[in-house]
Design a protein that fits this description.
The complex is a heterodimer of chains A (254) and B (330). By secondary structure, chain A is mainly alpha-helical. Chain A has one domain. In chain A, 76% of the residues lie in helices and 0% in strands. Chain A is built from 10 helices and no strands. The radius of gyration of chain A is 18 Å and the shape is globular. Chain B is of the alpha/beta class and 330 residues long. Chain B folds into 2 domains: 217 residues, P-loop containing nucleotide triphosphate hydrolases (Rossmann fold, 3-Layer(aba) Sandwich), CATH 3.40.50; 68 residues, Alpha-Beta Plaits. Helices cover 42% and strands 28% of the residues of chain B. The chains are: A mainly alpha (254), B alpha/beta (330). The interface between A and B is medium-sized, with 26 and 29 residues.
C-alpha cells in the first residue's frame, strides 16, 4: 500500500527544489527573522504579565518564532499542491501507479524536512543573538515538537489545497487562517493574557500546544505540562494528516 | 485484443455534460484519433481513460482493466502526454525522467539505459541536464513524449501532441509517433483539432462534437462517405431556392449550407460546375466564386456537424462562457 520509493522520490524532489530556490528560503525566513529581531530587541527589558520574572523577553520569544516558522513553511508546503496543479505537474504525479497515501506521505516528508531546516536556521540565528539551549535532550525534544507541528500544518495546507481550485484564495488563507493561528498561539505573549472568550480559540489552535511544548523543551517554561502538549500536538498531527489525505484523495486533479 | 473498450461513458460537471454516452473500441497497435473542436470533450475523454477523472456513468477498460475498479492496473499500462506541460520546471530534463522512472519502479541500471534511449529518440541529449525552465515549448513537448515512453506503456495517450508547435517540430513529432507505433506495437490514442494531423497519423478517426461521437471510421472511408468531390460555392441571393432545385438532381450526393456558402459533393464534379452555374443564374442567384477539391476531413467534419471546426470552436467558447456566467450568478 505504501510505496517507499514513491515517498522517497517526492521527498527528493522537494529537497532539490528547496536547495535551488535560494530566494524562497530567504523569503520565508525574512518574516520570522524580522519578528525575532525587532520584537526581541525592541521589548528587551519589558515585563509582560504572565511571563516568569527571571526570563528575558527574547528567550520567551524564540520558541514562539520557531513555531511561527514551522506554521508558515508547513502550510506553504501543504498548499504547494495548488502550484503543482497550476503548473500541471500534479497530473503527472496522479497518473503514476502509486497509492494516493504514498503521494501524501511523500509531500509530508518533503515539507517537514524543509520546515525543520528553516526552524533550525532560526534557532541558530537566535543562538547568535544570545539564546542558550540547556542540553542535547531539550534540543531533541524541541525537534520532536517541530516535526509534529510541521505534520499538523502540512495536513491543514493539504485540506485547503484540495478544496481550492486555484491559487486565487491564497492571500485570504494567509490573512484569515495563518495569522490568526499565529497570534492565538501565544507565540508573542502568554495566552493567559487574552480575554476568556478569545482564549477558547487559542486552546482550539494546535500551535498553542506546539509553541508551549517548544518553550517547555527549550527554556523550561510552559503553561501546560510538556506531556499534555505532546499528546495534543501528536493527536492533531495524526488527525490533520488523516484529513489531508482524505480530502486529497477525494479531490480531482484536473 | 482490444486495447480500449469504452461503453456509454458519461462525464458531467455541475450539470454540464462534457462526455455524452460515447462508445468505441480500439484494437492493440492502432493509432486512434479523437478529432473535434476545443471543448468538444476530447481531453475529458482522455482524463477519464487515464483515471484522472471518475466517470459519471458508463464503463471503460484500458488494456483489459476497468478504469474505475482497477485504477492502479490501468495506470501501470498507460503513458500520457498532456496538452499543457506537466513538467517540474525547477528540475532538469534528466531529473524529470529519473523521477518518473522511479515512480514506475524501474531499477537503476535499467533506468539509465532507457533514459539514454528515449532522450536520443527525441533528440534532447545535449540539453538533458539543463533545467526545464530554460526549455522551449517544443523541447518541453519532446521531453514529455520521452517521459511517456520510459515505462514502455501498452497504451499511449497524446493530448494535442503538436498544439502550438512550429511546422518542422510538428513533422518530427509525427514521425516519432508513427515509428513508435510501428516498432513497439503501442496503441496510440491522440486528440487533435488539426485535420491534417488526424489524416496523416490515424488509422481510424472518431469525430467528436458536443461530447458525442458523430462519426467513426478510417480517414479514407470518412471522406468517401461524402460521395465524390466537394464543390464550394459562394453565393449571393436566395440560397434556399437554389438548394430546392439542386436537391432534385440525382448526381448531387450531399448538400450543406453555412452562411452564404453552399457545399455539394458530386461525382465527376468538374463536369457539373457549368450546369450548377446555369441553374443558379436561372433563379437569379449570383455565384461569386467556385472551389473544387478532393474531400478533406474538414469537409467530413462540416458534413457531420454543419459547421467548420473553427466556427464550432467559436460557438463552443461562447457556450462555455455562458455556462461559467450561469455558475457565477448562482
Amino acid at each position: 500500500m505504501i510505496n517507499g520509493i514513491a515517498v522517497y522520490v517526492l521527498w527528493l524532489r522537494e529537497m532539490k527544489r528547496f536547495v535551488r530556490a535560494k530566494s524562497r528560503i530567504v523569503g520565508t525566513l525574512a518574516m520570522p527573522l524580522f519578528f525575532l529581531l525587532f520584537l526581541g530587541f525592541g521589548f528587551k527589558g519589558v515585563a509582560i504579565p504572565g511571563m516568569p520574572q527571571n526570563i528575558n523577553y527574547i528567550h520567551f520569544l524564540v520558541p514562539g518564532i520557531i513555531g511561527m516558522t514551522m506554521l508558515f513553511t508547513s502550510m506553504f508546503a501543504g498548499i504547494s499542491v495548488l502550484w503543482d496543479r497550476e503548473f500541471g505537474f500534479l497530473k503527472e504525479i496522479m497518473v503514476a501507479p502509486v497509492s494516493r497515501i504514498s503521494i501524501v506521505l511523500g509531500r509530508i516528508a518533503g515539507g517537514s524536512t524543509t520546515a525543520i531546516i528553516q526552524g533550525l536556521l532560526i534557532l541558530g540565528i537566535s543562538i547568535l543573538m544570545g539564546f542558550r539551549i540547556g542540553n542535547v535532550w531539550s534540543l531533541a525534544l524541541a525537534i520532536l515538537f517541530m516535526i509534529l507541528i510541521a505534520m499538523t500544518f502540512i495536513g491543514l495546507g493539504l485540506i485547503f489545497a484540495s478544496k481550492m481550485k486555484d491559487i486565487q484564495g491564497f492571500g485570504l488563507i494567509i490573512n484569515f487562517v495563518m495569522f490568526p493561528l499565529f497570534f492565538l498561539s501565544g507565540a508573542l505573549f502568554p495566552v493567559e493574557n487574552l480575554p476568556m472568550s478569545i482564549r477558547y480559540f487559542a486552546y482550539a489552535d494546535p500551535l498553542t500546544f506546539g509553541v508551549d511544548g517548544l518553550r517547555g523543551a527549550l527554556i523550561s517554561v510552559s503553561s501546560f505540562s510538556i506531556f499534555l502538549d505532546l499528546v495534543i500536538i501528536a493527536a492533531s498531527a495524526l488527525l490533520m494528516i488523516f484529513l489531508g489525505a482524505y480530502f486529497f484523495e477525494k479531490s480531482e486533479s484536473v | 485484443m482490444d486495447s480500449i473498450k469504452v461503453e456509454n461513458l458519461v462525464k458531467q460537471f455541475n450539470g454540464f455534460t462534457a462526455v455524452d454516452h460515447i462508445s468505441f473500441r480500439v484494437p492493440q497497435g492502432e493509432i486512434f484519433g479523437l478529432l473535434g473542436p476545443n471543448g468538444a470533450g476530447k481531453t475529458t475523454t482522455i482524463n477519464l481513460l487515464s483515471t484522472l477523472l471518475k466517470p459519471t456513468s458508463g464503463s471503460a477498460k484500458v488494456s483489459g482493466h476497468d478504469i474505475f475498479d482497477h485504477r492502479d492496473e490501468v495506470r501501470k499500462n498507460i503513458g500520457i502526454v498532456f496538452q499543457e506541460p506537466a513538467l517540474d520546471n525547477q528540475l532538469t530534463g534528466r531529473e524529470n525522467l529519473t523521477f518518473h522512472a522511479m515512480m514506475y519502479g524501474i531499477n537503476k541500471d535499467e533506468r539509465r539505459k532507457r533514459i539514454k534511449r528515449v532522450v536520443e529518440l527525441v533528440e534532447l541529449t545535449p540539453k538533458i541536464d539543463v533545467l526545464v525552465d530554460h526549455y522551449s515549448g517544443g523541447m518541453k513537448r519532446r521531453l514529455e513524449i520521452a517521459r511517456g515512453l520510459i515505462h514502455r506503456p501498452k497504451v499511449l495517450f497524446l493530448d494535442e501532441p503538436t498544439l502550438g508547435l512550429d511546422t518542422q517540430t510538428r513533422r518530427h513529432i509525427w514521425d516519432y509517433i508513427k515509428k513508435l507505433n510501428r516498432e513497439n506495437q503501442v496503441t496510440i490514442i491522440l486528440t487533435t483539432h488539426y485535420m491534417e494531423e488526424a489524416d496523416y497519423l490515424c488509422d481510424r478517426v472518431a469525430i467528436i462534437d458536443h461530447g458525442k461521437i458523430v462519426a467513426l471510421d478510417t480517414p479514407d472511408q470518412l471522406k468517401e462517405m461524402l460521395g465524390g468531390d466537394v464543390i464550394s460555392l459562394e453565393l449571393d441571393g436566395r440560397v434556399d431556392d437554389l438548394m430546392a432545385v439542386l436537391k432534385n438532381l440525382e448526381w448531387v450526393n450531399t448538400m450543406k449550407k453555412h452562411g452564404d456558402h453552399l457545399n455539394l459533393t458530386v461525382e465527376t464534379a468538374e463536369k457539373r460546375i457549368p450546369e450548377i452555374i446555369t441553374t443558379a443564374q436561372k433563379i437569379g442567384v449570383v455565384v461569386r466564386s467556385v472551389n473544387l477539391h478532393k474531400p478533406s476531413l474538414e469537409d467530413v467534419f462540416l458534413h457531420f456537424t454543419g459547421k467548420t471546426i473553427r466556427e464550432q470552436e467559436v460557438s463552443q467558447i461562447q457556450r462555455n462562457r455562458e455556462t461559467v456566467k450561469r455558475r457565477m450568478h448562482r
